Amino acid sequence: MAKAGWSQIDSTPPLGLPMGGRGPRFSPGTEILDPLVAQAVVLEDGSGERTLWLSIDMIGMAWPQTSGFRQELSAMTGIAFEAIVINFSHTHSGPMSGFEGYATTKAKPADLTAYEDDLIQRCVKMSIDAVQRLQDVSVRVCHGSSAIGINRRRPDAEGVMGMGPNPEGLCNPDLWILDVQAHSGDGRCVLFSHGCHPVMVYGFSWQGISADWPGVCRGHLAQHLDGDVHAQFIQGLAGNVRPRQLADLAAGTFRVSEPDDYRATGRQIAEDAMATLDDEGEVLDLDLASVSDFAMAPKDHSRLPDLSHWESLARGENELEQNLGEYWRDRLGAGIPPVKFLPWNVGLIRLAQGHQIAWLANEVLAEWLPLLREWLQDPKLIAWGYCQDGRNYMPTDELISEGGYEVDRANTYSKNGPGPVAMGINEAVQRTYLAMAKRLD
Asked: Which of 199, 211, 218, 327 is 20 to 30 A from 1, comparing alpha carbons?
């Protein structure tokens, strides 16, 4: 008999904290447009095996934080470390979490540390609460689709890769839903996953706190589905996918957002989710197993700027460039090179026979899903990004030669930069996942 329990807390930060999604740039939040939440769900199969999934409205913590966080969750719940997944919605209108991973010499603000420490402890309590609420349930999986996103890597007339809506680029339409219904009462947990950046609110409110379109979708589902519904979002492979609502295809750009845009996108995917739930789906007999490992992603140091480049940035007046210049000037000047490999935390969860979830840390580009499905010979495989760590864009070999923001420029913002990921990343990931699949069996 399957069991499940779920819980939720408000995670809205106090005003004045630096906002996430701005790089290492200090921009304080000054107004709350809508609340942020943290959510937890625990699944248990007939043999007592469990998995715990947390969803948090923030840009994404760094591995040093989440590893300790997960260790405490494991100690308090008895759930195995590798069976615990912390997923970040990646809203760009939440707090600047993951500060430890930014390339900056500035000290982490004390009030940001206090917020995160308090949130982690409340999330531990939330997870314990979810375990204590375990009850008999039926579990159904439904596969649908949504068209809220569009690929954002667009080459210009000269073939230089920039950022703009590209209808020819890959954008996974997959909308995956796990419908968990209590046998007693009307309790219901609806877990939904799709890959698309929540980057709409800061276009019209740079300093406004908001869950962006995932929050609108959660609210719409809770309001329009029957019973007491816990709607929980798990972000997918959104590294190079932005909301289609803002795409100006004629101009080849994304227009500036307005308040109605994120609400419209949230309602659209909620309607897609409800249509998916109307399908029969497939009832699952839970048979849980979880494995995780690190794929050692190689880094390319062949074209790194020299020390004078960073010294020049450090002398500039732009806050973002100053931060980057000071950090890499001091680090390289001290004789400490950029990392040679990026240990990329990845995992595999078996829900039931024939139903697997691949989770990956960092900002994973959409092109990884068809590769993972091919390597694991699983056309129904679903994948989550932004798990355990929300930094570092992860392109495939096929995209590295194209260049562009996700391949090169974004890396300078991270302590794992400034060089791009090197060719050979596909082989590293394939080898790691095939080894995990054997362990899972």
From this structure: 218
